[in-house]
Recover the amino acids of this structure.
């Protein structure tokens, strides 16, 4: 395993720069700008999320919050509503808080140095460096997931990149490879190279601009580098969610600010072994007119796997329309537009499709009966 850097570290950077100019990505909506707000937003959205998913959210988010002042002055609920479906909702919380800090501490102007940027909520070392380089032309090294893969393979750095010792070696490599000029092009080129050529599965080594001295390619270790996260059995959790319906509306409950899906709207939850009827009487003082089990929904988080056990509950009466803060009755269509976690949106879609299917079935049955009556 190689532990020293090549004498031609400068050549590595120049090859990446030349490749980016000729073959890299140039038409992404957050490129060709020096606006730190737009660069920051894209960097946060791209954390653990694919470019194809981010693009639509990025445009919609910018339309809702065109600058840092608009984002800072918005309500947390509105921010979460625009983020709904993108996942990893802590990013949205941090994004909103960081925008407020930029406005209150820096007068709405992002600080140009990576150290100050990294002190803002939700902005780590690599994200801060990317903003400093792409917005302000700073000389900083980045190390996002794609760049880790490029450097781990090129330098044959074994081990899981999240391990402290491995991460330290990768940061050392990232700094050692920095060119003297064209930092913006080089930084974008590294990200593009990892995203489009040096991909995790079936990398396109034949067209890679740095293949000539790639240690992993030379040693036949491309597919084993970088090492994946050590696998541990994910804890399993299960919870029952209640789709409480009344007069065509569904009850939503706002989740606590902390914890999973913090600040989003969801369905009331119960422990899996709780009695639904007793829980409804105890918590809401209502009686169920319908109780229908629906198919379970599995959802994976980073640290555990969650299984939702939905139950459709009908009630005829409710003690007051606006009975308490944190609850709201909405039609299924309006509920789908609220700030909901992805699996809850999936559950709503399933319920709506089931209703539409039943309506279509009743309509077909009615038409058939009318035809039979006419023939008679």
């Amino acid at each position: 395993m190689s532990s020293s850097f090549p004498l031609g570290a400068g050549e590595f950077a120049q090859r990446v720069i030349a490749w980016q100019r000729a073959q890299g990505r140039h038409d992404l909506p957050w490129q060709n700008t020096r606006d730190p707000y737009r660069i920051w937003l894209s960097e946060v959205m791209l954390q653990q999320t694919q470019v194809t998913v981010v693009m639509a959210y990025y445009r919609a988010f910018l339309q809702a919050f065109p600058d840092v002042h608009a984002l800072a002055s918005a309500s947390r609920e509105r921010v979460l509503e625009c983020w709904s479906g993108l996942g990893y909702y802590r990013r949205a919380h941090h994004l909103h808080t960081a925008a407020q800090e930029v406005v209150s501490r820096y007068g709405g102007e992002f600080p140009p140095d990576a150290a100050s940027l990294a002190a803002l909520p939700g902005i780590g070392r690599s994200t801060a460096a990317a903003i400093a380089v792409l917005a302000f032309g700073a000389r900083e090294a980045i190390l996002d997931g794609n760049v880790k893969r490029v450097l781990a393979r090129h330098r044959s750095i074994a081990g899981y990149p999240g391990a402290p010792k491995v991460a330290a070696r990768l940061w050392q490599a990232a700094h050692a490879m920095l060119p003297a000029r064209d930092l913006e092009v080089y930084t974008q080129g590294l990200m593009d190279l990892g995203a489009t050529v040096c991909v995790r599965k079936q990398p396109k080594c034949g067209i890679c601009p740095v293949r000539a001295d790639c240690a992993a390619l030379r040693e036949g270790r491309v597919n084993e580098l970088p090492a994946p996260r050590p696998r541990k059995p994910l804890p399993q959790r299960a919870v029952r969610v209640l789709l409480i319906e009344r007069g065509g509306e569904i009850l939503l409950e706002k989740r606590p600010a902390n914890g999973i899906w913090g600040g989003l709207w969801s369905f009331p939850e119960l422990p899996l072994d709780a009695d639904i009827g007793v829980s409804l009487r105890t918590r809401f003082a209502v009686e169920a007119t319908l109780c229908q089990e629906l198919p379970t929904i599995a959802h994976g988080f980073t640290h555990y796997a969650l299984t939702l056990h939905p139950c459709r509950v009908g009630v005829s009466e409710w003690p007051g329309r606006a009975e308490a803060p944190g609850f709201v009755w909405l039609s299924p269509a309006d509920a789908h537009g609220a700030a909901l976690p992805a699996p809850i949106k999936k559950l709503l879609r399933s319920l709506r499709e089931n209703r539409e299917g039943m309506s279509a079935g009743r309509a077909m049955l009615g038409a058939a009966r009318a035809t039979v009556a006419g023939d008679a």
Residues 342-375 form the longest helix (34 residues). The chain has two domains: 11-224, 236-369. The first strand starts at residue 236 and ends at 246.
